[in-house]
Structure formats: structure tokens, C-alpha cells
Amino acid sequence: AGAEMDSETLKKYSALHPKPPGLTLQYGTAGFRTKAEQLDHVMFRMGLLAILRSKAVASTIGIMVTASHNPEEDNGVKLVDPLGEMLHPSWEEYATQLANAEEQELQETVTDICEKAAVNQHKDASVFIGRDTRPSSEKLSRSVIDGISVLGGQYHDYGLVTTPQLHYMVCCQNTQGQYGKATLEGYYEKLSKAFMELIKKSPGSGESQRHLKIDCANGIGALKLSEMQPYLPQELLIHLYNDGTKEKLNYLCGADFVKVHQKPPRGLDMKPNERCCSFDGDADRIVYYYKDETGHFHLIDGDKIATLISIFLKELLAKVGQTIKMAVVQTAYANGSSTRYLEETLKVPVHCVKTGVKHLHHKAQEFDVGVYFEANGHGTVLFSKAAETKIRQLAKEEKDDEKREAAKVLENMINLINQTVGDAISDMLVIEAILALKGLSVQQWDAIYTDLPNRLLKVQVTDRQVIDTTDAERRAVTPPGLQEKIDALVKKYKLSRAFVRPSGTEDVVRIYAEADTQENTDALAHEVSLAVYHLAGGRGEPPQP
Ligand code: G16
């Protein structure tokens, strides 16, 4: 049985990870995230929290030390729930309480959480740990281990892994291996096997090789892709760039950089029409792109990934002839053209939720097949238990050849997709398989619909929490007058839309705008950023056009 908490030991260990007095951190879009040097106490305390959570749900819990797309100097922590989901929202409050308790209140806070969350302290506890390649991550993950040890929990340290790999491990462990083997080898084998089964059926398979250039953001993706390379079939040749040996993590490269700046990453030379993609710092996001013959850059973001996957799955579901209902979940950042295409042309219901994978994941669970993607390239597909069982059964027993074959393809898609969370490696293989099976070039994929010109900007304000939003973040409720101002600005342009929201991972306010031309979009985005600067307490120089 798990050890009871010894308050003297807690005090002693906590003193080794002291909280800077007065420092308050908010649980953000994906856990705590800030400058690495402010996080030692948070990591220790999240080690404590993971044990409490593990005892409360009698399952293994995951902790990932990463700040994903943020600059190298930052760090952060993501907590993983039993089936690989993000930490349940009801526990975010406990996480915040624990992270912000002053040294002398720590013991009391732990006891308080145990009471509120009905934690049975006598239960066993187990935690899986992973970390990204940031220089600060190793030390911070040792602080996590200190927290775990104080409360007498078991742990397994996976060391350097991608965030989605850790989610996968946790899910494997808690499903007693049903989801897969909880090892890196198990992960590589599961995905590569499903991928091979899929592309076997593609036209010209065995003869042609597919080349893909990958910008690894100078992060963990490079390490894990090179480990995976020997498992991949010869049909897919991956070429790794920005592998972290020379340059800084996420600096002028990576999925976030490419999406926000709508230009290629540094360090990857692109020939016309070559298919390229970028991972982010912890390999849970992916975007594709190419350059045409005129040198024009084309971004294929999360919305186009969701569309490609939806088209493919819809065709297969029609073939198997079952009433399996599919829906797509997006956020306010989704390009207006993507939503229109999905609803009007593909005739798939679309739902809009707040930013953050936790919100998309939750909504997607309502459907037989829920495709969710953020425009920034973070997403996956969820299959309900019932849909999965039905598909696996049809793949085995269906007499009609065409139906059975379609069910088999769906079954392999289920095996290839990381259903626990968005996963750049898994998403990449899903996309490569679909393109191969449908015989689509990157240009043809891009041409499914035309994006409305769009722009993402950031503005710094003294306190970003003065902005409160509603309607899945599409309208600002405070500060007074801001939404009215945005409405008036949006009216000046055609096909226009704009919204603002405080980031949950960086100390900025994010601005999104789209309109009929890039010029108008940029003008609108700039005007909205000035409105934020003036009405929401702008810091530093006013935004420049
Ligand atoms: C995290 C979340 C994503 C979110 C992104 C930006 O991504 O997991 O869901 O879209 O932050 O969030 P915000 O606009 O609130 O800063 P990552 O890849 O950095 O973990």
C-alpha cells in the first residue's frame, strides 16, 4: 500500500524546491508555462499532484516536461489523465492551488485537496514521466521525481519522448496493453505496421518512393523520427532538417513559426512542388507546405489536414454502409473557407469550441467519429468504442468484398491514429497514407478549397486577463468598448472576421483576422491590435503596421 504522507519529509523536500514568495502562476491552455527558472517548485508540486490524482483514479498518470512551441528558455508541464487525455478540468483548480501555495501552506493545501477530491492516501500510485529536449527539462523532471518520491509513489521515467508518445504510454498502461505496448518500440511497431498495411493498397506501391522533407523544429521530433526510421517501409523516405544539432529549439522554424509567419522555416531548402512539413517543439503539431514554380509559398494547415482526413473517412464510411456519424471540431481560428467547405460541400457537421486540445477532444468524444484539429496543426481523430467495435467486426466478418476492404482500411486508420492526443508523427503517417491511397499530390490537396487571407498577431498588455471572451472566444466581453470597436472595424471589409483572446501559453493577447484580400486582412489585424493596445492596457510601443 502507498505510504502515508509524512509532513516533516514534505517540508524538507519542498525546501529544496522553494516557491518564490508571492509568485502566482495560472494553469493555462496546456498546463503551466513560463520561464524555466520560475518552474522548479511547480514541477516538484506537480509531482505531488500526479500522485494524488493517481490515487484518486487508481490509475497511472503522466507528466510531460515541455513548453512545446514556446522559446527554448521557457518550460512547462502537461499532465496526462488515465486514457491519455489532458488532466480533467476539475483538477486544474487543485493544480493551481498547489502551484501557488506559499511554503508554509503546502501541507495544508495537500490535505485540503485530498479531502475535496476524496483521495484515498492508502492507495498505490504510479506516474509516467517524459521530457522534451530543452536544456532545462532534465533538471525539472528530477524535481518532478522528488515530488513523486515524497508521497511514496512508483514512477517510470521515459526520459526524452514526444508529448504524444507519453500520452500513448499512459493509455497503454491503463488499458492493460489493449491500446498497445507501453514502450517506444511498441509505439513504433504499432504505427509502422498500420502504415504498411495501408499503403500496400495504394496505386504503384512497391515501385515508387515517396519523399518527405521534415523540419523538426530543432526538437524531440528529430530524435524520435530517427529512431523510428528503421521501422518505416522503403516506400516512405523521410529527410530530417533542423534536428537540433546546430540551432535553437523553435527558433525561426517549427510548426508554430511556419503557421504564424506563413513562410518556410530556416534551414530547409525547398524545391518547387516538394512536399514538406514542420513539427513543433514537442511533436504534437504538424503543418504541411510547398513552394510552387513561381516561388510562391503555400501553407497547408490543420484545417486542410482535417478536411483531407474527413473526405477520406467519409468515403470509407459510405462504403461500409453503416450509420456511423462523423463530425468535425474546430476553433475560432479555423479559416472561414474550411468551415464552409466542410459544411456546404462535404456536408459534415462542424462544431466550434474554445482554443485548447482539451476542449476539442472533449467535444469530439460526442460523435461516432470525431475529427478535431486546431488551425495550428494540433489534432487527431476519435472513434467511439461502438464505432471501433463495429468496424473491427466488419473487417473480419463482412461477406461483401468491397465493404470488408473498406472496413479494413478504416481499421488500419484506427491503429495508425493516436487517439489520445494530436501527434505529429502519427498525423504525418495518416496524411502520407491518404495521399498515397488517393493518388493526390500536395497541390491537389491544397486546391480542395482556397483559404481566405488571414493574419495572426500578438500584442503585449499589462494584464492579459482583462480580456474576457464568450461564444467560443469569438467575442470579447471585457474590457468595455473593445468588442464594439472590433465590430466596427470588421464592417469596413468584405468576408471579414476578427477576434481577440488572451493566450494561455504566452504572456500576450492574440489577434486573428481574415478578409477578402491579404492587404485588407493585414489592415484589419493591425487596426484590431491598436484597439487592444489602447483599450486593454498595452505595454511598450504601440503595434506597428
Ligand atoms: C498549446 C495547446 C494548443 C493551443 C496552443 C496555443 O499548444 O495545446 O491547444 O492551440 O497551446 O494556445 P494559446 O493560444 O492559448 O497560447 P502547444 O503545442 O504549445 O502545447
TrEMBL record:
<keyword id="KW-0597">Phosphoprotein</keyword>
<feature type="coiled-coil region">
    <location>
        <begin position="384"/>
        <end position="419"/>
    </location>
</feature>
<comment type="similarity">
    <text>Belongs to the phosphohexose mutase family.</text>
</comment>
<feature type="domain" description="Alpha-D-phosphohexomutase alpha/beta/alpha">
    <location>
        <begin position="58"/>
        <end position="104"/>
    </location>
</feature>
<dbReference type="Pfam" id="PF00408">
    <property type="entry name" value="PGM_PMM_IV"/>
</dbReference>
<feature type="binding site">
    <location>
        <position position="510"/>
    </location>
    <ligand>
        <name>substrate</name>
    </ligand>
</feature>
<dbReference type="GO" id="GO:0005975">
    <property type="term" value="P:carbohydrate metabolic process"/>
</dbReference>
<dbReference type="Pfam" id="PF21404">
    <property type="entry name" value="AMG1_III"/>
</dbReference>
<dbReference type="GO" id="GO:0000287">
    <property type="term" value="F:magnesium ion binding"/>
</dbReference>
<feature type="binding site">
    <location>
        <position position="284"/>
    </location>
    <ligand>
        <name>Mg(2+)</name>
    </ligand>
</feature>
<feature type="binding site">
    <location>
        <position position="280"/>
    </location>
    <ligand>
        <name>Mg(2+)</name>
    </ligand>
</feature>
<feature type="binding site">
    <location>
        <begin position="374"/>
        <end position="376"/>
    </location>
    <ligand>
        <name>substrate</name>
    </ligand>
</feature>
<feature type="domain" description="Alpha-D-phosphohexomutase C-terminal">
    <location>
        <begin position="456"/>
        <end position="529"/>
    </location>
</feature>
<feature type="binding site" description="via phosphate group">
    <location>
        <position position="68"/>
    </location>
    <ligand>
        <name>Mg(2+)</name>
    </ligand>
</feature>
<dbReference type="InterPro" id="IPR005843">
    <property type="entry name" value="A-D-PHexomutase_C"/>
</dbReference>
<keyword id="KW-0007">Acetylation</keyword>
<dbReference type="InterPro" id="IPR016055">
    <property type="entry name" value="A-D-PHexomutase_a/b/a-I/II/III"/>
</dbReference>
<keyword id="KW-0119">Carbohydrate metabolism</keyword>
<dbReference type="GO" id="GO:0004610">
    <property type="term" value="F:phosphoacetylglucosamine mutase activity"/>
</dbReference>
<dbReference type="InterPro" id="IPR049022">
    <property type="entry name" value="AMG1_III"/>
</dbReference>
<feature type="domain" description="Phosphoacetylglucosamine mutase AMG1">
    <location>
        <begin position="182"/>
        <end position="287"/>
    </location>
</feature>
<protein>
    <recommendedName>
        <fullName>Phosphoacetylglucosamine mutase</fullName>
        <ecNumber>5.4.2.3</ecNumber>
    </recommendedName>
</protein>
<dbReference type="GO" id="GO:0006048">
    <property type="term" value="P:UDP-N-acetylglucosamine biosynthetic process"/>
</dbReference>
<keyword id="KW-0479">Metal-binding</keyword>
<dbReference type="InterPro" id="IPR005844">
    <property type="entry name" value="A-D-PHexomutase_a/b/a-I"/>
</dbReference>
<keyword id="KW-0175">Coiled coil</keyword>
<dbReference type="InterPro" id="IPR016657">
    <property type="entry name" value="PAGM"/>
</dbReference>
<dbReference type="InterPro" id="IPR016066">
    <property type="entry name" value="A-D-PHexomutase_CS"/>
</dbReference>
<feature type="domain" description="Alpha-D-phosphohexomutase alpha/beta/alpha">
    <location>
        <begin position="119"/>
        <end position="170"/>
    </location>
</feature>
<dbReference type="Pfam" id="PF02878">
    <property type="entry name" value="PGM_PMM_I"/>
</dbReference>
<feature type="domain" description="Phosphoacetylglucosamine mutase AMG1">
    <location>
        <begin position="301"/>
        <end position="439"/>
    </location>
</feature>
<dbReference type="InterPro" id="IPR036900">
    <property type="entry name" value="A-D-PHexomutase_C_sf"/>
</dbReference>
<comment type="function">
    <text>Catalyzes the conversion of GlcNAc-6-P into GlcNAc-1-P during the synthesis of uridine diphosphate/UDP-GlcNAc, a sugar nucleotide critical to multiple glycosylation pathways including protein N- and O-glycosylation.</text>
</comment>
<feature type="binding site">
    <location>
        <position position="282"/>
    </location>
    <ligand>
        <name>Mg(2+)</name>
    </ligand>
</feature>
<keyword id="KW-0460">Magnesium</keyword>
<feature type="binding site">
    <location>
        <begin position="501"/>
        <end position="505"/>
    </location>
    <ligand>
        <name>substrate</name>
    </ligand>
</feature>
<dbReference type="InterPro" id="IPR049023">
    <property type="entry name" value="AMG1_II"/>
</dbReference>
<feature type="active site" description="Phosphoserine intermediate">
    <location>
        <position position="68"/>
    </location>
</feature>
<dbReference type="GO" id="GO:0030097">
    <property type="term" value="P:hemopoiesis"/>
</dbReference>
<comment type="pathway">
    <text>Nucleotide-sugar biosynthesis; UDP-N-acetyl-alpha-D-glucosamine biosynthesis; N-acetyl-alpha-D-glucosamine 1-phosphate from alpha-D-glucosamine 6-phosphate (route I): step 2/2.</text>
</comment>
<keyword id="KW-0413">Isomerase</keyword>
<dbReference type="Pfam" id="PF21405">
    <property type="entry name" value="AMG1_II"/>
</dbReference>
